[in-house]
Specification:
alpha+beta; Glutaredoxin; 4-stranded mixed β-sheet; 8 helices; 51% helix
Amino acid sequence: MTDQLAADSTTPVTFDLWVDLVSAWCYIAKRRIEAAIGLFERPHDVTLVCRSWQLHPDLEPGRDGPVEPDVHLPGEHLAPGEQRVLIEQAAVDHEIRLEWDRAVRANTLDAHRLCALALDVGGTALESAMVERCFAAHFTEGLALDDLDVLQRISAEAGLDEGRVAAVLSSDDFADRVRADEHAGRRAGATTVPYLVANGTAGLAGLHSVEAYLTLLRDVATGSP
């Protein structure tokens, strides 16, 4: 099957992954999907785009405080303690540091707007860098993703132009892009994140294994049902 795929498949695959930047499950899902792409026979035929989703859109910016670890994974009927073990082991497997005692609550609208800016000016590579920088800022460094000074700094570290970032943060630019992403996600069937859609049709809700993402990728690339 692998040899046939490498020889015959010409179908490019676009993965649209809805994420929130304060969801550990989304952080792990992104890493697992990237691992699946790396194992795919034609990785250059695959594009991964992160789409915006706000789990707590009504949270008032600037009201920082400790977060309770969000270990509930939709579709999994496990006790909270079992889910916490699951998420912490998954994080270790993908070289992710989850510093729960440092993480603070934050409204992610502005961070999502900057991820949209990154996609607009630098494509998926720059968007990925910005998404990863936001995840690390929240989960490892205890930084508030609705603090404008924090966003200005981490955006520059991810590779965005400081002047353009400042202009976006002082405006409503890309807010419509965030809302459009969320609307598209709901139309596609998302009720929470992570939520993955491949080529606009086939999709997976929740967190899955690297092998499951790779199977989806191969099925879509070959037109399998």
